[in-house]
Please model this.
Amino acid sequence: MLLAGVPKGLIVAIIVFVVLIGIAVALYFLGKKAQKKQAEQQEMLQANKQTVSMLIIDKKKMRLKDAGLPQAVLDQTPKMLRNSRLPIIKAKVGPQVLSLICDDKIFDDVPVKKEVKASVSGIYVIDVKGLHGKRDDAPAKKKKGLKAWVDKLQEKAGAKPIR
Model:
């Protein structure tokens, strides 16, 4: 009977507020723990990296079980991540054709049907360093804004864009 004169709506709002603050604090500490774990993994990858010359045959985002990776990799992967799509590179390293997992940050920069020098740690491609020849498959910069929209509409209509 401590809160007899307080409206029920205020009590419910206070309880919801306290629960939300508890959730925020829990997420903060879980985030710090995950950041520390990721930093340790990055440090381990950097310590074990090797520079390898390889010919990139194909690159796709595909499911882990469809990628053609060794069974040991599939067994070590958490069940939640087995159906997620990962950037996979098929590359010829020496006489072998291998399926490698690529870093998301560099996946778009990896050229197909080109020979590259890549930093590899196990089956994980960390970085693409040297490129032989010119990059003719570099992504074109897209226009943004009203001008791009007008140009697109004029192109669809068959008119020349205004310059």
About this structure: The beta strands are 50-63, 85-93, 96-102, 115-121, 124-131. The chain has a mean pLDDT of 84.
